[in-house]
Amino acid sequence: MRDSRPKLLDTLFEDSVTVGKSPLQNIQQHTSALLKLNRVVLCLLPAQLQPLCRVANYRKQILVLEVGNASWMTRLRYEIPTLLSTLRSEILPSLSSIDIRINPSLMVKNSNHLQNSSKSLIKETNNDSQDLPKRHLTHESAKILMGLAERSPEKLKKKLEQLAALAGEGTSTAKRKR
């Protein structure tokens, strides 16, 4: 159990030579070790996971990682065996397991990064869609859609008629307007 009683400030700043190590020195050393470990772990992860993952703690031979949400947690779980074996062989031979926790604040911090990456993905998709073959709606399909529109509610009827009007035109999934 933790010792949560108040302490005098003098004991926190005591000279490490006289008493061993002061509590602040222990905290500072643990923090710097976690920062180094974080850099190593991020280098071992795929590029998509790097901004959404960080080392939270290392205690009792368990490495605790934080991710932004459950979907990234699932993605990170696929990387655990590789990460575990690499860390054991190169840095932490005493590492027994890796625990993953969700920290939504990581998503807030990295929302700009995600927006920029999604914009670049959309640009790539648009460039790729120009190479795709055009799809055509046959006149027979348009007749079926018009027949269906006659028996449909007003809102659906308008949409079906718009779709049927595309008969004979080339349509692309990237250029469709909703």
Explain what you see.
It contains eight helices and five strands; from the N terminus they run αααββαβααβααβ. It is of the alpha+beta class and 178 residues long. Among the domains are: 88 residues, GMP Synthetase, Chain A, domain 3; 32 residues, no CATH class. The strands form two sheets. Strands 1-2-3 form a three-stranded mixed beta sheet. Strands 4-5 form a two-stranded antiparallel sheet. Strand 2, helix 4 and strand 3 form a beta-alpha-beta unit. Helix 7 runs antiparallel to helix 8. The protein is elongated, with a radius of gyration of 28 Å.
Short structural summary:
This is DUF721 domain-containing protein. Pfam families: DciA (PF05258). With 178 residues, the chain is α+β, with helices and mostly antiparallel strands.
Highest-level CATH class of the domain at 21-108: Alpha Beta
Look up the CATH topology of the domain at 21-108.
Answer: GMP Synthetase, Chain A, domain 3
The largest sheet is: 3 strands, mixed
Instruction: Compute the separation of the termini in Å.
Output: 59 Å
Mean pLDDT: 80
E-strand count = 5
Name the shape in a single word: elongated
Pfam family, one: DciA
Organism: Xenorhabdus szentirmaii DSM 16338
Protein name: DUF721 domain-containing protein
InterPro entries: DciA-like
